[in-house]
Each structure stands twice: as structure tokens, then as C-alpha cells.
Write a structure and sequence with these properties.
Radius of gyration: 19 Å
Number of strands: 9
CATH class of one domain: Alpha Beta
Strand content: 15-25%
Number of helices: 9
Strand order of the largest sheet: 3-2-4-5-1-6-7-8-9
CATH architecture of one domain: 3-Layer(aba) Sandwich
Structural class: alpha/beta
Distance between the termini: 39 Å
CATH topology of one domain: Rossmann fold
Shape: globular
Order of helices and strands: EHEHHEHHHEHHEHEEEE
């Protein structure tokens, strides 16, 4: 509890990690606020069903608070969001001159602050994917401020967990995205960095994952612990193995 986990990908798609954490925390009985900025609800629900979780049922029992970013953006641009709910949209910054993410932070805080009758084990904020906020016009400083305040509330005050995905690309010249990703690396307790194979596409090895367990953020002189595995994504799970030791090679 109280941990900040950063998911990064370079040269491949690390979305399978988001689906893992979503199903993992729901099965564990945690209250989850999911800022799904990249895909629709039905997409996440179909994958979750393969992993043995129903997002619809989790929403109905109040365990999952789901922000469908694609739909919210359209509703906001066409002026339908406030008419339906009577409340300002969490993505209010889209229609304002400043890229202030306070409305999004308020949505997270309200969603995860426990009620008197709540019996969930702990709050979890899951974001897929933070790069979308930059694409929508938020500044890197605003995005980093948003994550900072979320860490203070969720990790420190509520003793929950924050899991954030930041997409990356080796060939991209998106300096803002690199700035946000590199800055978050310095604040993370755990980094899961998914990379494509340097040798290109392979049917039996889909990429490699670098697991970086950060040393204490206090100055204790410890070194970060790094483990590297290769993986293959299957229909309902992911197989991990040491580099060069896939079943196809052996």
C-alpha cells in the first residue's frame, strides 16, 4: 500500500499490464478509479471477462468508478456532459483556456474517498494512458502536478496505490511526453518497462519487460534492482521467461 507504479512501453504495446492490474485489484476487493482515456468501456470489459472479471458488475456494486475519456471528450465538445449530470466534466480543461486538471483531480478524490458504509480493502487509481492528456492540450507541468496531488491523496492520505501507463516511442520527437515519463521515473516505487525486441518481430517472443524496483527515495545509498524477462502474450495470460530461454528456442 502507498506505492506508485509506473508502466512504460517503447517500441511495443504495454496495455496488457493495464488489464492485469485492473483485474488484479478488482479481484482483491479494492475500490478502483479507472481513468480510461485510450479505449472504450466495452474494450476493457471484453478483455476483463477473459481474465474472469465483469467490469459492469463491479460498476453496479460501486467498486469501480470508470471515466470513459473518449465519450466524455465528445460530450464535452458537444455540450451534453453538464446537461446530463449537472456537474462539471472531469475533462473541463478542454473547453477552457488554461490546462488546469483540478476538475480531474477532484473527480479522483471524490471517487476514492471512502464512505461510512464502504468495506473495500483500499483505493486504487489506474490511468490508461497519461500521454493522452498531453495530446488533448494539457501542459507537462499540469500533468505532473495532477499526478503529484493524486499521489499525496491516494498513496499518502488514503494509503492506496497509483498505477499509471505512459506510452513512449524511440523514434518519436515528442519531448513533452519524454519529459513526463522521465520525471515520473524519479518518483516511482516500481517501474515496469515493456520494450520491443531489438531484432524485430518474433512469433514466439513478443517483447521484453524490465522490472525496476526503486531503492528507497530517501538517501540510503541503495541501488535500484533491475530484472529483465522476455514474454509471450497468450489468449488469457502472459508467459515470462529469461532472455533466450523461450520454448521455441529450447
Amino acid at each position: 500500500q502507498g506505492k506508485f507504479t509506473l508502466l512504460r512501453d517503447t517500441g511495443t504495446d504495454g496495455s496488457f499490464l493495464v488489464h492485469h492490474f485492473l483485474s488484479f485489484y478488482l479481484k482483491a476487493g479494492c475500490k478502483v478509479c479507472f481513468l480510461a482515456l485510450l479505449q472504450s468501456f466495452s474494450h476493457y470489459n471484453i478483455v476483463a471477462q477473459k481474465l474472469g472479471v465483469s467490469l459492469t458488475a463491479a460498476k453496479e456494486r460501486g467498486q469501480l468508478v470508470f471515466l470513459e475519456g473518449l465519450k466524455s471528450c465528445l460530450d464535452l465538445l458537444f455540450g451534453e456532459e453538464e446537461e446530463r449530470s449537472g456537474q462539471p466534466s472531469p475533462l473541463q480543461f478542454l473547453s477552457e483556456s488554461s490546462s488546469d486538471l483540478k476538475a480531474l483531480f477532484d473527480f479522483v478524490r471524490t471517487s476514492l474517498t471512502p464512505d461510512s458504509g464502504d468495506s473495500w480493502k483500499g483505493p486504487v487509481l489506474l490511468v490508461d494512458d497519461l500521454s493522452v492528456l498531453l495530446s488533448l492540450g494539457a501542459t507537462p507541468v499540469a500533468v505532473l502536478d495532477f499526478i503529484h496531488y493524486c499521489r499525496v491523496v491516494v498513496c499518502s492520505q488514503l494509503e492506496g496505490n497509483v498505477v499509471v501507463l505512459v506510452h513512449g516511442n524511440e523514434d518519436s520527437e515528442d519531448e513533452e511526453n519524454e519529459l513526463v515519463g522521465n520525471s515520473l521515473c524519479h518518483h516511482s516505487d516500481l517501474i515496469l518497462w515493456v520494450e520491443g525486441l531489438a531484432t524485430g518481430f518474433c512469433k514466439d517472443v513478443h517483447g521484453q519487460i524490465k522490472i525496476i524496483k526503486r531503492a528507497s527515495l530517501e538517501l540510503t545509498g541503495e541501488q535500484d534492482r533491475v530484472q529483465i524477462y522476455q514474454y509471450k502474450i497468450q489468449e488469457k495470460n502472459v508467459t515470462f521467461f529469461a532472455r533466450g530461454l523461450s520454448a521455441a528456442v529450447l
